[in-house]
Design a protein that fits this description.
Layout lengths: L1 H9 L6 E5 L14 H12 L6 E3 L2 E8 L2 E8 L6 H12 L6 E11 L3 E4 L8 H10 L5 E7 L10 H5 L8 H21 L1 H8 L16
Parallel strand pairs: 1-4, 1-5, 5-7
Antiparallel strand pairs: 2-3, 3-4, 6-7
Length: 217
Amino acid sequence: MRLAKLFERSAPPRADLLVVGLGNPGDGYADTRHNVGFRVANALAKRARAEFAIKAAESRIAEGTVGSTRVAIARPQTFMNDSGNAVRKLLDRYRIEPAQMIVVFDEVDLPLGKIRIREKGGPGTHNGMKSIVAAVGEGFPRVRVGVAPTDPAAEIGDLAQYVLSPFNADERAEADRVTQRAAEAAEVAIRDGVRRAMDTFNADTPGRNADARVDRG
C-alpha cells in the first residue's frame, strides 16, 4: 500500500489536451478586456468541474475532464508579454506537443461578442501570442475573443490603455455572454475537434479592422 501511494505521488501529471487562457495576474487586471482569456478559462473550468488548485509551470492550473478527454486549463502568471515562458513549461509538464494546446485570448480586431477559431497561424498584433509563438511555434489552435467596440465608427484611442481598461457598464452583459460562448467553443473543440468548433462558431464572426497592425501589451 505504501509503495502504491508513493507511486501515485511520483507519477507525472497527465492531460490529453491543454487549454491556456491569457491574461495578467492580480486583482487590478481581473475585469479588463485584456483578461478575457482568464475569464474564459474560469468558465471552462466550471464546465469541467475543475478548480485552479495547482500552482506549477508559472501558472494556476485546473485539471478535469471534458467528455472522455483529460484537460489541463491554465492561467499563466507571468504577465502577458512573457506568456511563452509559462506555455513552454506547461507543455513540458504534461509532455504534450503545441498541437495539443488551445490558446484563448482577447482580439481587438474583432468586435465584442464575436469569436474566431483558427487551427494555427501567426501571432498577429497580440504581444502574448507573440511571446508564445516565439517560444513554441505557430502550430496550435487558438480562440480569439473580440473586445473591440461594437460600433465600427467608434475610436479606440490608445490601444494599450483600451485593452487594460475594464468593460463599460453597457458592455458587461455582452462580455459575460461572449465569455460563456467562447468557453462553449473550447468545449466543442475538445469534444469534437477544432474543425467542428470552427464550423459552429466562426460563421457569424466577421472581423473589425482585420488589417490593423498595432502592438499591444
